[in-house]
């Protein structure tokens, strides 16, 4: 559905996006993940034709967003981080205005308004002024306008920012529902949100793509080492000495706790039932009571922190200009 090749965006000497290349396939919910300032919003603004690129190419459904913008944009519905709402309009008036602006045929206008209002749950507030709605309902109206015109791709930039916990749950469920019928790209700096909603993940850091894949695939990238949290009833030195002979242990950190307990953080190069047993048997052989033994699962947070540390610094602007195969669109 979307192909991005060597995309770069510079603002003077500052590079917001650096040589991004990725593909978005039809029928999945993609999480565009990165910290604030990573270049997510800049990339989304380019994908939707709201911002010119400095270099690179973006095609949507086979249409070049720079060469055939009208055809490409018809395939995309966009909710910016700040929804483009008019507070003095009612929800019904606003959605009708957007539908006409998008060229929805008059004969299909009522049908589309009814459908998007039902899907996003704004039918009950259709007659209310937008400025009087809660933040959660304003986000729903923003998503409703993105759905008008029946686009095949929905792009949502930080859709849950500023919402309360209940509203976040509701919007996440709405996104999952949308993903059953459309391709969805969701930008977020919240790891748990991406993990809860998305089928695929694109990780961006300092304007560069540092990883892509399913959440499970990315988690496996950190599977070379595993961390165990162990609590024993023994002195730190005793606990450390008991674990030293265990095959596969890389490091043991011990901290004395209350009541003669010691909390251990054990880093191992192996995982699975065998390692669990080795740890347990090594401690029991020394007659050390094991009060807790837990294996920490890899998470997107672990993956992102590890990959972010290895991300390259942005290359100097003059070096980028020398790179071949790009079209300058500044």
Features:
Rossmann fold, disordered C terminus, alpha/beta, 330 residues, 2 domains, Alpha-Beta Plaits, elongated
Provide the fold topology:
Blueprint: E1 2-11, E2 14-24, E3 29-33, H1 40-47, E4 55-60, E5 63-64, H2 69-73, E6 76-79, H3 91-101, H4 106-120, H5 135-147, E7 153-157, H6 165-178, E8 183-188, H7 191-197, E9 200-205, E10 208-213, H8 215-220, E11 226-233, H9 236-243, E12 249-256, E13 261-268, H10 273-285, E14 290-296, H11 300-310, H12 317-322
Parallel strand pairs: 3-8, 3-9, 6-7, 7-8
Antiparallel strand pairs: 1-2, 1-4, 4-5, 9-10, 11-13, 11-14, 12-13
Helix pairs in contact: 3-4, 4-5
Task: Describe it.
The structure is a single chain. By secondary structure, the protein is α/β, with parallel strands linked by helices. It has 2 domains: 2-220 and 303-322, P-loop containing nucleotide triphosphate hydrolases (Rossmann fold); 226-297, Alpha-Beta Plaits. It is built from 12 helices and 14 strands. It has helices at 40-47, 69-73, 91-101, 106-120, 135-147, 165-178, 191-197, 215-220, 236-243, 273-285, 300-310, 317-322, and strands at 2-11, 14-24, 29-33, 55-60, 63-64, 76-79, 153-157, 183-188, 200-205, 208-213, 226-233, 249-256, 261-268, 290-296. Strand 1 and strand 2 (14-24) form a beta hairpin. The two termini are 25 Å apart. The model is unreliable at 314-330 (pLDDT under 50).
């Amino acid at each position: 559905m979307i192909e991005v090749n060597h995309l770069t965006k510079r603002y003077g000497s500052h590079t917001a996006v650096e040589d991004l290349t990725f593909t978005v396939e039809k029928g999945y919910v993609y999480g565009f993940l990165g910290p604030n300032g990573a270049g997510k919003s800049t990339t989304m603004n380019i994908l939707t034709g709201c911002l010119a690129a400095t270099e690179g190419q973006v095609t949507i459904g086979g249409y070049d967003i720079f060469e055939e913008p009208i055809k490409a944009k018809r395939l995309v519905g966009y909710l910016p981080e700040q929804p483009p709402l008019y507070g003095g309009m009612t929800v019904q008036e606003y959605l009708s205005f957007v539908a006409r602006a998008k060229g929805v045929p008059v004969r299909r206008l009522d049908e589309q308004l009814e459908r998007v209002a039902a899907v996003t749950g704004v039918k009950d507030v259709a007659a209310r002024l937008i400025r009087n709605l809660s933040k959660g309902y304003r986000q729903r109206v923003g998503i409703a306008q993105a759905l008008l015109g029946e686009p095949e791709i929905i792009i949502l930039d930080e859709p849950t920012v500023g919402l309360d916990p209940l509203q976040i749950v509701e919007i996440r469920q709405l996104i999952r529902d949308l993903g059953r019928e459309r391709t969805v790209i969701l930008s977020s700096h919240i790891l748990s949100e991406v993990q809860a909603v998305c089928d695929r993940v694109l990780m961006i850091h300092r304007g560069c793509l540092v990883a892509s894949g399913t959440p499970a695939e990315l988690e496996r990238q950190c599977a070379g080492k595993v961390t165990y949290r162990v609590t024993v009833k023994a002195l730190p030195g005793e606990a450390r000495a008991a674990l030293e002979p265990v095959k596969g242990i890389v490091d043991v950190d011990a901290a004395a706790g209350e009541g003669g307990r010691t909390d251990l953080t054990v880093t191992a190069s192996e995982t699975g039932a065998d390692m669990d047993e080795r740890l347990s048997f090594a401690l029991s052989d020394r007659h050390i009571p094991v009060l807790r033994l837990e294996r920490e699962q890899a998470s997107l947070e672990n993956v992102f922190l590890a990959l972010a540390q290895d991300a390259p610094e942005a290359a100097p602007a003059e070096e980028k200009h020398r790179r071949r195969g790009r079209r300058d669109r500044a």
